[in-house]
Design brief:
The complex is a heterodimer of chains A (180) and B (223). Chain A is α/β, with parallel strands linked by helices. Helix content of chain A is 34%, strand content 24%. In chain A, the strands form two sheets. Chain A has a six-stranded mixed sheet, sandwiched between helices. In chain B, β2, α1 and β3 form a beta-alpha-beta unit. Classes of the chains: A alpha/beta (180), B alpha/beta (223).
Chain lengths: 180, 223
């Protein structure tokens, strides 16, 4: 059975688990444990990988993986990137330095971003409007990264689907014209 | 207040450049090269020395401060991957090309601001230089159109066909992007990427449409 893969990444609390749960057709396996890190105001945190799944009309699977958010697990980013179609980077704009957070994922998934597709979803802009989306766009320009950056509430399934739609559009725009 | 000065002896336009995040040594070298190239560039280029600038030269990965400039030129240590990027050490011919391209774009923007936008030429291929300002992305269609333009250069007709968006909306949006200076016309041939094993998957034929169908999206992602 042919399988395809899309990654969701971002800091702890950015919404990876929520985003995948919104669109997955399978009941996700709960890998959450009690959060003991006082830096993050959440009761539970993901100890392993988030996983979701969609079955396509020809039986192929589209697997959605949420990468571990904490940097000590970044060795897994390279492993997970292999064979992925693209990555959705979720940024929590309420954190102290969201652009620095973004840089970590731009570095960690650099090759996947260049070869595949990438969408940057900025959350909590309504309560934390800075940095602005314009600021993100300028920052990406200095990082030589060209991809969509949008305001997103991952609690809304429609908005998560829009992220995937943009990922597919970007993938299509990069591969258009190649021999099939 | 004008942002350009006319060089009376040659009657050509002069622009100013500034630096942000660039080591002093690279600044000195950059200025030296620009001086040497003055007789070859289409426009004159002078350091801003604290005054207004039309071009900001930045180091790759430097977080740009919040003062908008029309043009950005990135200096980095990786092989050039796209326009408005120079790989260090600077080469005179590459710098000359970039200054001429950027000077032309600045002039086109200035002229475009005082006249109505010109229609994109039939068959003219364009793509985004950077993700547009949110003020240009007033609808979901705009975001989708901009996303399509992040990959290979496309004509207006190709963008309209792939997106399924009304032709007038596509045309107006692309002109707005052009007016804002975020479109690259007939992108120059980029150096071939380093020969590295691909990490990302290449979509199999029909895969993108199958995923769209599964997500309940219609043709080209329109629900």
């Amino acid at each position: 059975m042919i399988e395809h893969k899309i990654l969701f990444t971002g800091t702890t609390g950015a919404g990876k688990t929520t985003a995948i749960h919104c669109v997955s057709e399978v009941v996700p396996i709960n890998t959450d444990v009690r959060n003991t890190d006082p830096e993050f105001a959440k009761a539970m945190t993901t100890a392993g990988l988030d996983y979701g799944e969609l079955t396509l009309d020809n039986g192929e699977k589209l697997r959605l993986y949420g990468t571990p958010g904490q940097h000590r697990f970044n060795f897994m980013w390279s492993i997970l990137s292999r064979g992925a179609l693209g990555v959705v980077i979720l940024v929590d704009n309420s954190r102290p330095q969201p652009l620095d957070d973004l840089d970590a994922y731009l570095d960690g998934f650099r090759q996947l971003i260049e070869e595949g597709a990438c969408v940057i979803a900025v959350g909590r802009l309504d309560t934390h409007p800075h940095p602005s989306l314009e600021r993100y766009a300028r920052h990406l320009e200095t990082r030589q990264v060209l991809c969509p950056v949008v305001d997103t509430d991952v609690r809304e399934a429609a908005q998560v689907i829009q992220l995937l739609e943009l990922l597919l559009l970007q993938l299509e725009s990069k591969t258009m014209g190649r021999a099939s | 207040m004008t942002d350009t000065t006319a060089n009376h002896s040659t009657a050509r336009v002069t622009f100013h450049f500034a630096f942000e995040g660039v080591p002093e040594r690279e600044q000195i070298l950059f200025k030296s090269f620009v001086r040497l190239l003055q007789h070859r560039t289409h426009q004159g280029w002078l350091p801003a020395n604290g005054g207004p600038s039309q071009l900001m030269v930045v180091m790759q990965d430097h977080a740009l401060a919040q003062h908008p400039t029309p043009g950005i030129l990135v200096l980095g240590k990786q092989a050039a991957r796209r326009a408005h990027y120079l790989c260090l050490p600077i080469h005179a011919t590459e710098l000359e090309t970039e200054l001429n391209v950027m000077g032309g774009a600045l002039i086109a923007r200035r002229e475009g601001a005082s006249s109505s936008p010109q229609a994109l030429l039939p068959g003219e291929r364009v793509r985004l230089l950077r993700w547009p300002s949110p003020t240009l992305l007033s609808s979901r269609d705009h975001i989708r159109l901009a996303t399509l333009m992040t990959g290979r250069p496309l004509t207006l007709q190709e963008v309209q066909r792939r997106s399924g968006v009304d032709g007038a909306i596509c045309s107006d949006f692309m002109h707005a992007l052009d007016h804002a200076g975020v479109l690259e016309h007939e992108a120059p041939t980029m150096p071939a990427p380093l020969d590295m094993p691909r990490r990302a998957a290449t979509p199999t034929p029909g895969l993108i449409d199958r995923i769209r169908n599964r997500l309940g999206l219609g043709l080209a992602g329109r629900a």
